[in-house]
Amino acid sequence: xxxxxxxxxxxxxxxxxxxxxxxxxxxxxxxxxxxxxxxxxxxxxxxxxxxxxxxxxxxxxxxxxxxxxxxxxxxxxxxxxxxxxxxxxxxxxxxxxxxxxxxxxxxxxxxxxxxxxxxxxxxxxxxxxxxxxxxxxxxxxxxxxxxxxxxxxxxxxxxxxxxxxxxxxxxxxxxxxxxxxxxxxxxxxxxxxxxxxxxxxxxxxxxxxxxxxxxxxxxxxxxxxxxxxxxxxxxxxxxxxxxxxxxxxxxxxxxxxxxxxxxxxxxxxxxxxxxxxxxxxxxxxxxxxxxxxxxxxxxxxxxxxxxxxxxxxxxxxxxxxxx
Length: 323
Ligand code: ACO
Known about the structure:
Its main location: cytoplasm. This protein is of the alpha/beta class.
């Protein structure tokens, strides 16, 4: 067992709420359709902030909650599919803004599995010579949404969340994980495609920033591959589904969450959700949920929790933590 502690969690969502009712004044949709298919009633959308602004707020909260200095950080990982820019990375912007002058920083791109993949990398780093770091998932997906396209615009929201992790002598940490990538299925969920019109190109390819997804395929993928990854992670940890106190799944769709709860014979109360108020915030969703549950006291030290991401790539990642 690795000895790794989640010392603090934090979240930051923009204050502008956009309800399904408001969206229905902009496009041909309605609360009934959106809520019955996804469990989403509203989402938060930025008015002025970029991805780094949300991530910086999360980082500052994490340092304050853990009562440690920025200089004590060894690394900062920001998982995002909607960075401010490719260079500098969003993580580098955070590192500079908070004055973490001993830390190296980089972005990680794994869409909605981003926080789980980031925690995996952090766990590896902490098993070597590093002692403390931040893992943040931050997204301004509203940059990537075609606000004319009702099939995607109703699904996503903006937000940031993360954790401060460090090594510990306590017998806790990441018990097991199963991360899988299905690159052959990547075309089912794309966003942020670059074009190329270099003077040597035989063929000019056009840029397309917007989300396009084959919703049915992604739905089927999630309900097939999430249980498979979760089963594998539980088996590696030599635990049964009953042993887990809470399952924190990526908040894409309430139907996906309840299908998976049933598959494992678990009560839905062990699969908390918040997509009703936040929409799908991709790499931020699991961290936002974790911080809400820590704040309410439902999730606390001594428990076993599962963190499960799935989405673009296509990717899936399941981890079992003793916290
Ligand atoms: N309002 C009203 N009607 C709509 C809307 C809308 N917002 N969007 C689509 N429709 C219509 C469609 O045009 C279609 O009409 P038609 O039958 O006349 O052609 C009808 O509703 C049904 O559309 P479907 O796409 O078949 O609807 P479905 O039941 O599959 O639900 C959804 C779509 C919610 C996207 C679902 O497929 C889903 O949740 N998939 C999973 C997506 C997901 O989890 N993504 C996670 C990864 S995200 C990431 O990694 C960033």
